[in-house]
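Just wondering, does anyone understand these tokens?
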Amino acid sequence: MKKFIILMCLLVLGKAGVAADIEPSKTVENVPSEIVLTGNLVFDWLDITQVERDAVIDKYKSELFDENTVYKYKKKDFRAEYKDFLKDKDYKRHYMLVRNGVKETDKENLCGFYYKDNLLISYAVQYKNELRTVYYYDAMGKLRYIDKFSENYPNFPYMSKQYRANGSLVSAIYFISHDMQYMYEEDQKFKGAWYKDKMYDRHAKQVLTRTNW
């Protein structure tokens, strides 16, 4: 079965979780009609009408993609802003820590992405002195992506945008809670609603699952 990898770390003040090794699903499992998250948050994506789902999609899209959204930074400006992170100067140590299952040190949060459970192909670093940015590197320590979080991170709800190392937008995510997120592609197209380890499309059909949630 074909597999996908979505690089997304749920790193919240020392608690690291990875959304990776994702595969499509053709069946929808039976899910209780009402799943309580936290407080008054309830996952009801499977029960509300299509009109209501479309309204939710439009609501979070308008919040994620406002007039200040940058879809493509000038490569020169982007690389100048992140010049100290284009190459992970400590990549050998980070690589070994991640390979050995270390998710947190005194200075950083870490997570890894694996191919077939044992080959580390990428890892992410979130420095504790700047929690609003996550850097994704390949196995040789070359920067591939960054996540930029909104100012209220890590307090829910918050937003994030992921950019390639050339400054182009990859995706945007609205985080309702640790369990639930709404994900959009770079062209504002709705990708899906995550609830724990499952993603549902705009019609409430389960389309993806993720491990290491």
Summary: The chain has a mean pLDDT of 84.
